[in-house]
């Protein structure tokens, strides 16, 4: 996976998850340093709508536009953040 | 919420999420320092089965036994972990 490409892709994510990967909105998760594989699983779960209800709907919309490669790159980028 | 009660409740969680809140299993999330409100939302999403498919099924089983108070206490405990 390509964390630099992930960074380029992460502009829209930063709005909720923070430019430093620490979500200022308390109901949203911080992503900095999270397990890379878990991030992939979570994004795919939103994309496949295995995560629904409540605020999950917002992430469904975001994940719908992501390719597997985008997801891998974003996961590498956030997992690598301290 | 009562983080000490959360700690007492967290024995079973530590098996997957790590005694220090850092999941050694790469497909599971680290919880240490995560946003407290998000942790509450996530546990409730598993309990209500709004999160399904794949490994979510494991957490559904865990969350099914948790009361709102357990969830609040566990969230306080993990959010407070550095």
Q: Based on DSSP secondary structure assignment, what is the total number of beta strands of chain A?
A: 0
Main sheet attributes: strand count, strand direction, barrel closure of chain A: none
Please tell me the CATH architecture of chain A by its name: Orthogonal Bundle
Count of separate DSSP helical elements of chain A: 5
- Quote the distance from N terminus to C terminus of chain A: 18 Å
**What is the CATH superfamily label of chain A?**
Cytochrome c-like domain
Uncertain runs of chain A are none
Query: What's the mean pLDDT score of chain A?
Result: 96
Strand content of chain A: under 5%
- Determine the oligomeric state from the structure: homodimer
Helix/strand-derived class of chain A? mainly alpha
Domain module tally of chain A:
1
Could you describe the 3D structure shown?
The structure is a homodimer of 82-residue chains. With 82 residues, the first copy, chain A, is mostly helical. Chain A has a single domain (3-79), classed as Cytochrome Bc1 Complex, Chain D, domain 2. The first copy, chain A, is 57% helix and 0% strand. The first copy, chain A, is built from five helices and no strands. In chain A, α3 crosses α4 and α3 (36-47) packs antiparallel against α5. The longest helix of chain A is centred in the middle third of the chain and has 12 residues, at 36-47. The radius of gyration of chain A is 11 Å and the shape is globular. The mean pLDDT of chain A is 96. The A-B interface holds A 23, 26-30, 33-38, 41-42, 45, 48, 50-56 and B 23, 26-30, 33-38, 41-42, 45, 48, 50-56.
